[in-house]
């Protein structure tokens, strides 16, 4: 046996990590997409963090990068729908199908049902992928299953597999877990007729939004240097439409701009616009700051006025991200629990951008909808209420607290707000804090929606100190 073939020695009984599938070199875009799916499934990785690294590492750009991105994100997003179809086409429960095989099947089914890639190419490239890393027998299985998948189109599969009720049908059609579709319907309330539009918007890959850092570059200049378009609502927003990795843009690398959904920009701006009773002492606080997107915008706005921002984040790692994002800004980062951060009360403006389910940003996190569980909501609601109560203790009389979530789930939004009001908090009308934005409903809170505003589904409510 040659040195290179000798099996590695097992140490201390610990299992060696499985080697990553070796790229075969024939189909780099699909190999990357498959490897993203594997990382998401096997390591609970985030697709949008794994993909750019793999593209860089394997020096994939241009059309191959665009295809890999479409296939990886699209397959993650559509997973529930793809699995329902695959389940119907296999002779065993999907739970019994080996994970690596399932990744290839999902990728193939996505191409068959949701892309313009021809059926022959979708099947044969999947068979090749399976053969290269999983062997001939499994390649045969992939071939048989995908041929069944390709017998009819997506609409016909939905018609065959959808539950009888409207909510279940919409959830399957637009690839959402039922409980999330239900949460959106409840949040829409009287406008529940818009549910299909929300789900459709959420099932579409969104444009990347950039924030032009105030004092560094204007949105017009940023749009000119990036080839993007100025956003409709935030004076700092630029929308990129041509895909690509925004981290490679000079303006982002040089810290003149960051990647931030326009809805998040509106939340940070709302904090800075809220009227105070009495002069602004320019002592501002971001109570849940990591990874620092809003802290950077708030810090820049405070700095222009000569003020400072305290940024609280309990996770050391995420506090480090805040430091990096808000570098060179008047931002002091505190690694602390926002429920009792040990800071001197008397803040003029406080943002509570509470930890939440993130159901409002699913379009930007392709795999998240299949990972979230309804059981997680109740625990978050308790923490959200405690953080809001803490902010209301830290704000000065006449100051303002803005409570925000990137979730429209009523328990996390109006539920938390109602409990605070019942405990004596004074709620303000938040609608004037997002000037120029239409369709904000009856207030006093603001709920943004992807289908109405092109933003993530951010919620915000304002309180007087
Ligand atoms: C929705 S994220 C905030 C996003 C951030 N404002 C931004 O724009 O980049 C919520 C943050 O709250 C943090 N968090 C969790 N528990 C917390 C606590 N007890 N006190 C303060 N922050 C907490 C999480 O670690 C997470 O970084």
TrEMBL record:
CDD domains: AdoMet_MTases. Keywords: Methyltransferase, RNA-binding, S-adenosyl-L-methionine, Transferase. Residues 184-465 form the SAM-dependent MTase RsmB/NOP-type domain. The keyword Lyase does not apply. SUPFAM superfamilies: NusB-like (SSF48013), S-adenosyl-L-methionine-dependent methyltransferases (SSF53335). Residues 1-29 are annotated as: Disordered. PROSITE patterns: SAM_MT_RSMB_NOP. It comes from the Bacteria. This is rRNA small subunit methyltransferase B. It comes from Rhodococcus antarcticus.
